[in-house]
Design brief:
- The protein is mainly alpha-helical.
- The chain folds into 2 domains: 183 residues, Growth Hormone, Chain: A; 195 residues, MFS general substrate transporter like domains (Growth Hormone, Chain: A).
- Helix 2 packs antiparallel against helix 9 and helix 4 runs parallel beside helix 6.
- The two termini are 19 Å apart.
- The N terminus is likely disordered.
Length: 402
Amino acid sequence: MTTTLLPKPGFLRSAVGGLPRPFWALWSGTLVNRLGSMVMPFTGVYLTQARGLPVAAAGVVMAVFGAGSLISQLLAGVLTDRIGRRATLGGGMLATAGALLALGYSTSLPAITAAMFVLGLVVDAYRPASSALVADLVSPAERPRAFGLLFWAINLGYALGMTAGGWLAGTGFLWLFWIDALTSVVFAILVWRAVPETRPTTREQAGGGFGVVLRDRVMLGFTLVVLGNAVVYAQTFTVLPIAMTESVGLSTGQFGLAMALNGVLIVIVQPLVSGRLGRLDPSRTLAAGLAVMGAGMALTAFVTSTGWLAATIAVWTAGEIITAGISGTIVATLAPAHLRGRYAGLFGFAWSVAMVVAPLLGSALLGLGPRALWFAIGAVGVASAAGMLALGPAIRRRRATG
């Protein structure tokens, strides 16, 4: 495939240059979509305030959304390999727009529940297709940087979208649904018009399907590492706010101020280091990042003030920056070209499982005390790092022969 490169002078060239134009269309669509991702952070508020649902009923509706998301990644992975990357991503975005508007205009509990299930099924269906596109379009040497830039776009868009969403929610929740739906459509159009279909037309080896993925012991081991990483990370937006406000006594304003550091560091630092980190061994780099995240979580056990919370956030954010783009690179290394969607789907499934497991585990550990919680979560991070190091030789062999 012949692509035109975007030349950039000096630092900008080293940071963002040398990647094909179709990747930048994918990147732009991702940024636009994340800028409009305003509904999910305010879903609980919408269900209880705008629709008047009791907290228990809202919890059930959110659980239905989680059930849809568990299916989503595996189904989207299959579709990515069977019908194509563009069709899966574009179709998922258009379905997301429809589900958002259906939810925004639903008033009865059955209709709201049905819309939330469909939204859970389709809202992140683009992820396996996006990962497969990056693996198809970008050379192995540049993949860490490409995946890192997507990570940066997601965080930048989400931070700005959250700010705007908080203001718009006060003027009327329907604005959130319409903006989110429109940006989903824009993402679909950008990819459909500017990104070529990259799905292999012939299989490179006999056999296929999830059976191949599930027989890949290295990928299964890596999926467990990813699950551990996701469980650690999910504490930052599930149990951490509760622990800091109830156990430490910080106000929501103090907690929000400290958490803002996470987004600021990612937006400023991550593009500066992505290229250098991409030149290092992916397995060792990911292990280092996981260990740093685990250490940051363990240090949270000693937080007594906003300043100390900010310090621990800086530590685990450093780990998050180190790991950005590396996991996607490893999945691309392990996956045969015709199964990249399914491999990415299994990777996404681990994150979906963690979104269910993490709050249950974290809240149970918090009941035993803050130190029990944060030392245990830190141990999960270190164990994940150790597992990554153990998988390193097998991943390097796969990389050398791939």
